[in-house]
Task: structure prediction
Amino acid sequence: TKQTIMKKTFIVIIMAAMGLYAHAQNENDKPKSLTIGVKAELNSDFMQEKGVQGVTDWNFGIGENAGITLKRTFTKHFAIQAEVLLQQNRSRLTYNSVEEKCSGFGIMVPFYFMPEVHCKNTIFYLGVGPWGCAGLSAKIGETNLYDKNNEYFTLSRWNLGAGMLLGVEFGCGLQINLNYRYAFFNSAMNDNGTLTEHQASIGLGYRF
Result:
């Protein structure tokens, strides 16, 4: 089923991140081939609605992402970066002509393949790759959207998609980045419509 596929793919992404770390522990690795960082972002989350009964409008909200990054440098111009982020999403939707507050909380694991351009002490990078998310909470008001018997619609705890990362890293380790993430799978489990997640974010990071 779609749920099983999403769970398995999320586990594969986690294992790939762990493998990246394990490979970098090889005693022959060059100094600084593996670096760890932290990042914090403001996100704007949006659900693209198509045919979900009762939903007539869904507006952007502001939330937060925060977590750690693990970057494995292979050459001067190519690296792979895995991230483990806690994310808090907020938005507003109109359901049966009533505006409601929607919120979500979960763990997201993006995995980026990153070409880099070095200019003196500054690195410009572009990353593309998959991401997986395990939802811990999703609510409209106090209603649990993971409950199949709720009064609105049912959401899946698991989500997968592709993302893009654009950023710059200064010589001091400070980073500024822009992200866009799109969900491949429909987030809603309804038979009468679909909800597809889009998220844009801007953030600061630091690489040790």
In short: The mean pLDDT is 84. Helices lie at 2-23.
